[in-house]
Write a structure and sequence with these properties.
heterodimer, A: 789 residues, alpha/beta, Rossmann fold, Histidine-containing Protein, Chain: A, Glucose Oxidase, domain 1, 4 domains, six-stranded mixed beta sheet, 14% strand, B: 198 residues, 0% strand, globular
């Protein structure tokens, strides 16, 4: 008689199953043993125990192993390998469900049946239950399972590669053709960029395939398995011979035409200094949720609304295609993106999780667009704009507003309660002339980000809250003036101001590459704050002497996992190279509530500004901290870097950081880079002298320093006057800091540094470095040149 | 040396237990960290017998993992070390070439045991490329393997699981780094920390 071994993750489950089974035969049944759970009573399986059990129950007629799921299979197969080969031949691992299979097997075995017969019976164990519950004759067919001997043939996996010839690489249109071509083929296909290592991704998502960024000359690699694997490979090969459906010669001709035009296509289409120009335009409300007329309903209704909206937008885009010929490519790309399964799946998932259709669309498309923003290829980055257009259209469709001409938007002045980082990331420079917030403060990170993107912002003006949509307003972001329905004289004044500012900016720009020196000949280093590769580019073009601060947490804002050391090395080297090897200051991760970082989790705190932020968080993530310092150390072999520690409060923090820096530098075989701290906590400013011997430089973060010193929230319009960065108390602390740190260079990186009116005051107090918004480099250098000291 | 490698791995797994469990909570049953700690604690407690050499020691390690880890990682890591020690028994001097053969045997064992392919979102997605990187680098193979392991680990976030309990989640497994891949990358990182470059 055969023996039976019951394998389960749960000891209790196995024992209970055996008890149940023993009731099926009164006496003389097969030998039954369990091998279940871990030695300490937890869930799990142990191949050693399984093989012992098999040896125990075998009487020479063989053993059937009945099991539950997952690792029980792995463990059982491994257990068979441990057996004496002659015994192993007499062991079968059953594919039957545990309880039903066991019961059937016990009865069959008790009747003296031999191993393969018992196994066969166990495989059909579900027949009784299925027949009872099934409504059609097909039920028995489901159970046509072969009983498995221990080994199974490995599934075939085909690999296919091609070198891409398309001038723009595998962008949206070729990607869409791949998706469509493979849709009806019964195969699992994953695609990867074999030249850069990106991927693999599923071949049914056009956005993911485009994000592989397979460029001309790189290799697209497919791994294919499944019943029609060969056919799938054939389809791909065929598609590749036609360059994935793109007319390459036509594309090349168009590119040649574009590059011979007089104006080179700039990487960024912004006008420098744009954020300081006066703004005139119609108001568009961008308040969130219910306030803009969208009332969320329960998920099922939201799904219906989404489907309707997608339909309207698709019809609209299809209709436009026939009237706006020049934009046909863009429209096609938008329709393809709209139909992207993965994106739709994400939106639907959010709706079923309880978000309104509006929020689901905003968040999903917004974050997808942000991913595209980070790509190297300009053409692909433009697709991020397409996504934002789609988002706008879907928003209009969901609110049942006419889609009309808004898609090629008449740009407007956006009205918001306040501008946070998430909002700033979604700002669309092509359709947003400027932003007015009714509520928020003047130097929150969202505002800084918008300014860095060249979008003028006016904050804390509650009087616009109730004005009608479409009302024309004007504002001057420099003087903080706002006009509602400005008359001719105001418009004229604004135009004059703009032309003055443009001229000054022009002059400044012409001298931007030269060193900024005061009247008395003191050289002031004017560098730039950088939160993106775009900023770095702009900083380099603007003539920044250094990068005074890289906001690394902003650089990696969309990640949920910390970037690897290699990733970071590549990024830091790229920034350094963009700056032509001028020094780049990398600020260590600085998570805080208004800049939550995906990979540092965020615990709820009653008082986040006074809680765990900046360096304080690093104590809980020493590996992530060390990895960043390691990346900096490695990158420093190729480019000139410095490290900046944010939110320093005590000497102990600096000592610890220094230790880690020195250790990783030793491990990487480099000299430790210069180490500096951000002086933004008043304690650090007051006690600066006690750090002096540990530092190579310091940077005063006036944004936070002015908040903490004057106990006023910079995001709160009610106390904005108390949070001013040029207040006497703040300037006193600046002076005290530079006095205490007289032997090392001290700079300012807060918003105050970007204010030309403050330059003289800062220089007078011993500041020798200013790190400003990228677009302000030229102007601040001019301000330095006007300092009479 | 190999003893230190595993001790270092055990340390990483101990400090990272929470993370492994967390990742496993998203796409599995939340116990990968606990399982690995249980297994590796037992490994650390092993007393290597004299004269057993690297091969005998790794065999002990394998059997301990199989017995004590509990989840799928037990048979998978167990098979990895079992196959590797098989090679080392025949060629006990651990030169770069010998380690290559041993690690490759280990990786092939994992592929067979788990029927894994690249892209299935398992620890195989880390071990296979890492061992390739090891073989390609003659100057600092352990370092190269560790770096490759790390980047491969992150790439698993973009994969859809088709093995193990995560497979029940289908596309919902996207966006989460695989826990098995994470512990595997730590195994390679520990190797880079301890094992000497050629």
């Amino acid at each position: 008689m055969i023996g039976i071994v019951v394998v389960s993750h749960s000891h209790a489950l196995a024992e209970a199953a055996v008890e149940l089974a023993e009731q099926m035969v009164s006496e003389g049944g097969p030998r039954l043993m369990t091998a279940a759970g871990t030695a300490d009573g937890g869930f799990g399986t142990d191949a050693g125990a399984i093989s012992k059990a098999i040896e125990e129950v075998d009487s020479g007629d063989g053993v059937l192993v009945v099991l539950d799921i997952g690792s029980a299979i792995l463990s059982s197969e491994l257990a068979v390998e441990f057996l004496n080969p002659s015994l192993a031949e007499r062991v079968l691992v059953s594919a039957a469900p545990l309880v039903e299979g066991l019961l059937t097997a016990v009865v069959a075995a008790a009747g003296g049946a031999e191993l393969t017969v018992v196994a066969g019976e166990a495989d059909t164990a579900l027949a009784g239950k299925a027949a009872h519950l099934a409504h059609d004759q097909d039920a028995p067919r489901l159970l046509d399972l072969p009983h498995t001997p221990a080994a199974r043939p490995r599934p075939r996996r085909l690999v296919w590669r091609v070198t891409v010839r398309n001038p723009h690489g595998i962008h949206v249109r070729p990607a869409a053709n791949i998706v469509t071509a493979l849709r009806d083929v019964d195969a699992e296909v994953t695609l990867a960029n074999a030249s850069t290592g990106k991927g693999p991704v599923c071949a049914d998502s056009l956005s993911r395939i485009s994000a592989l960024e397979v460029r001309e000359g790189q290799i697209l690699e497919a791994r294919i398995s499944g019943p029609q694997a060969e056919a799938a490979r054939g389809v791909l090969a065929e598609l590749a011979t036609h360059d994935f459906g793109e007319d390459i010669d036509r594309v090349r001709r168009t590119m040649a035409l574009r590059s011979s035009a007089s104006v080179p296509v700039a990487r960024s289409s912004r006008v420098e200094g744009a954020e300081r120009r006066c703004v005139l335009g119609p108001v568009e409300r961008r308040l969130t949720g219910a306030e803009n007329g969208y009332v969320p309903q329960e998920p099922k209704a939201e799904l219906d609304r989404l489907t309707a909206a997608v339909g309207s937008v698709d019809d609209f885009l299809a209709g436009l295609g026939t009237t706006h010929c020049a934009e046909v490519e863009i429209l096609e790309a938008q329709r393809l993106l709209l139909a992207d399964r993965e994106m739709q799946h994400d939106i639907v998932a959010r709706i079923t999780a309880g978000f309104s259709a509006m929020d689901a669309v905003e968040t999903t498309i917004g974050s997808l667009a942000a991913e595209f923003d980070l790509l190297d290829d300009e053409y692909l980055r433009a697709r991020g704009q397409d996504l934002r257009s789609l988002r706008r259209l879907l928003g209009l469709a969901l609110r049942e507003r006419p889609l009309g001409d808004h898609s090629f938007a008449t740009p407007g002045v956006w009205l918001l309660d306040e501008l946070d980082v998430a909002g700033a990331m979604q700002l669309d420079a092509d359709s947003c002339l400027g932003v007015i917030t009714t509520f928020g403060g003047a130097s929150g990170h969202g505002v800084l980000m918008a300014l860095a993107r060249g979008i003028p912002v006016l904050t804390g003006h509650p009087e616009v809250e109730n004005i009608a949509e479409g009302t024309v307003v004007a504002f001057d972001p420099v003087t903080d003036e706002l006009w509602i329905e400005p008359d001719e004289s105001v418009r004229g004044e604004m135009a004059r101001r703009n032309s003055r500012r443009d001229r000054a900016a022009e002059l400044a720009r012409s001298m931007a590459g030269e060193a900024a020196v005061t009247f008395s000949g003191q050289r002031i280093i004017v560098g730039s704050n950088v939160g993106s590769m775009e900023d770095a580019d702009l900083a380099a073009r603007e003539g920044a002497d250094i990068v005074g601060m890289v906001r690394t947490e902003v650089l990696y804002a969309t990640r949920t996992d910390p970037p690897t050391v290699t990733d970071q090395v590549d990024t830091y080297v790229a920034i350094g190279r963009t700056m032509g090897n001028r020094p780049v200051t990398i600020r260590v991760w600085d998570p805080s509530t208004d800049k939550p970082v995906g990979f540092f989790g965020s615990a709820k705190e009653a008082n986040p500004a006074l809680g765990e932020r900046g360096m304080r968080v690093m104590k809980h993530h020493p590996e992530v901290f060390a990895d960043q310092l390691r990346a900096i150390a490695i990158a420093s072999k190729q480019v000139h870097l410095r490290v900046l520690l944010p939110m320093i409060t005590t000497v102990a923090e600096v000592r610890w950081a220094r230790q880690v820096l020195f250790q990783v530098s030793r491990e990487e075989g480099v000299i430790p880079v210069d180490l500096g701290v951000m002086v933004e906590v008043p304690a650090a400013a007051i006690m600066a002298g006690s750090f002096a011997h540990l530092l190579d430089f310091a940077t005063i973060g006036t944004n936070d320093l002015s908040q903490y010193t004057q106990a006023a929230d910079r995001n709160n319009a009610k106390v904005r006057d108390l949070a001013r960065q040029d207040a006497p108390a703040v300037l006193e602390l600046v002076a005290a800091t530079t006095r205490a740190l007289s032997r090392i260079p001290v700079g300012v990186c807060g918003d105050l540094a970007s204010d030309p009116a403050a330059t003289a005051q800062l220089v007078a107090r011993g500041i020798t470095q200013l790190s400003v918004r990228p677009g302000m480099v030229a102007e601040i250098k001019q301000a330095v040149r006007s300092v009479r000291d | 040396m190999v003893h230190e490698w595993l001790a270092c791995f055990a340390e990483r797994v101990e400090t990272g237990r929470g993370l492994l469990n967390e990742l496993d909570r998203f796409i599995g049953d939340g116990d990968h960290g606990t399982n690995m700690v249980r297994g590796m604690s037992a490994v650390v407690a092993l007393v290597p017998e004299p004269d057993q050499g690297i091969s005998g020691y790794l065999r002990q390690v394998a059997m301990t993992l199989i017995r004590d880890v509990g989840g799928a990682a037990g048979p998978l890591y167990g098979t990895f070390f079992l196959r590797a020690c098989g090679v080392l028994a025949i060629l006990p001097e651990p030169s770069h070439a010998v380690w290559c053969a041993a690690l490759q045997a280990g990786v092939e064992g994992v592929a067979e045991r788990g029927r894994c392919m690249l892209g299935d979102k398992t620890l195989f997605d880390v071990l296979a490329p890492a061992v390739d990187a090891f073989a390609a680098d003659f100057v600092d193979p352990w370092g190269a393997a560790a770096r490759r392991a790390d980047s491969s680990r992150l790439q698993t976030a973009d994969m859809i699981a088709s093995k193990g309990r995560a497979a029940f989640l289908g596309t919902r497994s996207l966006g989460v780094v695989d826990p098995g891949a994470t512990s595997a990358s730590w195994l390679m990182a520990a190797g880079a920390e301890v094992m000497p470059s050629s």
